[in-house]
Amino acid sequence: MSNSVRRGVPASALRVGLGVIFGVAVVVVTAATPAAAHTALEASSPRDGTRIGAAPDQIVLDFTGPVRTRVSKVTVRGPNGEQFEIGSAQSTSDKVTQSLRPLGAAGRYQIIYRVVARDGHPIAGRIRFTL
Question: Per the CB 3.0–4.6 Å rule, which of 14, 23, 71, 89 could disulfide with 98?
Answer without folding.
Answer: 89
